[in-house]
Structures are given as structure tokens and as C-alpha cells.
Write a structure and sequence with these properties.
Blueprint: H1 21-33, E1 41-46, H2 68-75, E2 78-81, H3 83-86, H4 91-99, E3 106-109, H5 113-116, H6 127-135, E4 145-148, H7 158-167, E5 174-177, H8 182-185, H9 187-200, E6 203-208, E7 224-230, H10 236-255, E8 259-265, H11 272-285, H12 297-300
Parallel strand pairs: 1-2, 1-8, 2-3, 4-5, 5-6, 6-7, 7-8
């Protein structure tokens, strides 16, 4: 992911900001609504499965590309599904994806750019209905859809976004990421945007990336957190930042957080499994046993490192 990437991170303050004031109340209400013991569900994934570099690392040695999704699903339990950003999949493709992963796996498909990057957010194109009809074929394997608004999508288009939420089926979970700087520099714009997410029960995407610390807004709008974590080639700060996130997620879980979708990004996606593995290890140390993530095969079988 190029958004917010920097060639030099030596002067970046990676400390997590405090939670937005409304985050506590969102989680508190959810916890009060619970009738049973509260358990946060964790879904940890990367941004794609077509990685030949993972063969012999998290995919078995000699794995074929046609089986990459099968092996990915054994290692992760979610994915930031970028392929849907470029085209709406066919019904047959959806069936194939669904059949290729375990029952605890959740796809998080990105809204097609023909919708998210169009002038009217696809309201007059028929694309919204088509996408929703097809994507519902994932059934229980559908996690949370994810709409990434372009950097030029500003406050002047807020009414269009509201209309989009009125049209988008409320039973399909959705999270939204904003990038235009004015959403974060103008308190009125910031409040207006997140209030609309609150009203429509739309989740907010939180992105942790070196060059845009403003998008690390810590403002939850539902009891579901979608976090896009952008690392820097496993720099030491990648791991200290993960440590901070584990502590924050623990606090949110105690406060009433229901679900977490956490996506690890590294340059070219190659090192994402190592970062995800560290995240899962730290979550388990914190007491979260219901979380799974990738295992590095060379660590499972030390003899592999001899060949």
C-alpha cells in the first residue's frame, strides 16, 4: 500500500493517540446490550493469497497457485479482498472462494472502484445492487465489506455519501475509510462524518501508517473495529506498534468490542505473515485464546532451514 508510506520513518511519532471521546460510549452501549459473557472475535489477515513468495514459508513446499487460497485459509481467518476493488466477481467465483476456506474464515471484500471512485458513488449505475447480490453468496463467510474513498472525496460530497448509506443494504456489514485531509483538520467535518456512520451503524476503518497519522483517528462507530496496519519491512517499530495495538484492543475488548478485523500490510505483502504471527502471539499472551494466525513452516520444522 503506497498511501502514507515514507522513505524515512526516523522522525515519526508512532504512539497511538487517545481514543476519541465517543468510542467509549459506543463500546459501553454494546456491552450493556450483551446478555451473555462477552468475547471479542478476532480475524487476522493480509491483503491477498496469490503470493508465490509464501511457498515454503507459510504455504507447503511445492504448493501450486490453484491451491493458494486453500493454504491461505488454513493460515489466516480473514482477508482484505482487494480483487473486488477492480471488478465484481461472478457467482461462480464466489462459490469457489467460499468452498476453498474453513468455516471460521471471513472475506472482507472491498467495494468496487466503479462505485467508490465514481462521481455519485454508483447511485445511478446499478453497480451497488449487483455487487451486493453477488457478494451475499459468501453467506456466513462474508465478514465486513470495506469502502475506501479516494483522497479527493471531501466534505462537499457528504450528502452523496449519506444517500449511499440509505441505499446500501443495512444487513450487509460495511466499514468506510476516508483520506481527504480536511475531514481531520476541520472538527466540524470530522464530527459530521462520524455522526453519519453512527446513525447508519457503519463501521469506521482505522489506518495506522507512517505518513498520515491523522487517519489513525481511534473513533469507533460500531462494536466492530477494522484496522489496516502498514509496517515498514519489519522495522523494530513495527513490533512496538503491534504491542501498543494489543494493549488497546485489550482495553476495547474489556469495554465491549465485539469484532476485530486486523490486516497486516508490508511492502509487496511478502513479510505480512511474520507481522501477523507476532500479533497473534501477543494477543494470546494477553489472554485471547480464540485467535489464530499464520505459522512459519521453517519454525515448525527446523530441518527445512537446512535445505
Amino acid at each position: 500500500m503506497k498511501f502514507g508510506k515514507l522513505p524515512d520513518i526516523s522522525n515519526i511519532d508512532f504512539q497511538l493517540p487517545k481514543d476519541a471521546e465517543q468510542t467509549k460510549s459506543i463500546l459501553s452501549v454494546n456491552k450493556q446490550d450483551k446478555r451473555l459473557d462477552h468475547t471479542t472475535q478476532f480475524f487476522v489477515g493480509a491483503t491477498g493469497w496469490s503470493m508465490k513468495e509464501w511457498v515454503g514459508k507459510i504455504y507447503p513446499k511445492g504448493a501450486k497457485s490453484k491451491d493458494f487460497l486453500l493454504h491461505y485459509g488454513k493460515q489466516f481467518n480473514t482477508i482484505e479482498l482487494n480483487t473486488t476493488h477492480y471488478r465484481i466477481p461472478t457467482t461462480e467465483t464466489i462459490k469457489k472462494w467460499k468452498a476453498g476456506v474453513p468455516k471460521d474464515f471471513r472475506f472482507c471484500p472491498k467495494i468496487p472502484q466503479s462505485i467508490s471512485h465514481s462521481r455519485d458513488l454508483g447511485l445511478n449505475s446499478g453497480q451497488i445492487a449487483l455487487f451486493c447480490e453477488v457478494i451475499q453468496g459468501l453467506g456466513k463467510q462474508l465478514g465486513c465489506c470495506f469502502m475506501q474513498l479516494p483522497p479527493y472525496f471531501g466534505f462537499n460530497r457528504l450528502d452523496i455519501l449519506k444517500h449511499f448509506f440509505e441505499i446500501f443494504p443495512s444487513h450487509i456489514p460495511l466499514a468506510v475509510e476516508i483520506r481527504h485531509e480536511e475531514w481531520f483538520s476541520n472538527p466540524q467535518y470530522f464530527t459530521s462524518f462520524f455522526q453519519i456512520l453512527d446513525d447508519f451503524r457503519i463501521s469506521s476503518v482505522i489506518t495506522d501508517v507512517a505518513g498520515r497519522r491523522d487517519v489513525l483517528h481511534q473513533r469507533l462507530t460500531t462494536p466492530t473495529a477494522m484496522i489496516r496496519f502498514v509496517g515498514n519491512d519489519l522495522h523494530p517499530t513495527d513490533f512496538s506498534r503491534i504491542d501498543d495495538w494489543v494493549n488497546r484492543l485489550y482495553d476495547w475488548s474489556q469495554a465491549g468490542l465485539e469484532k476485530v478485523y486486523f490486516f497486516t500490510h508490508e511492502p509487496d505483502n511478502i513479510l505480512a505473515p511474520e507481522l501477523a504471527r507476532y500479533l497473534v502471539k501477543k494477543l494470546k499472551e494477553k489472554g485471547f485464546e480464540n485467535v489464530r494466525g499464520p505459522k512459519i513452516l521453517a519454525e515448525e520444522n527446523p530441518q527445512m532451514s537446512l535445505f
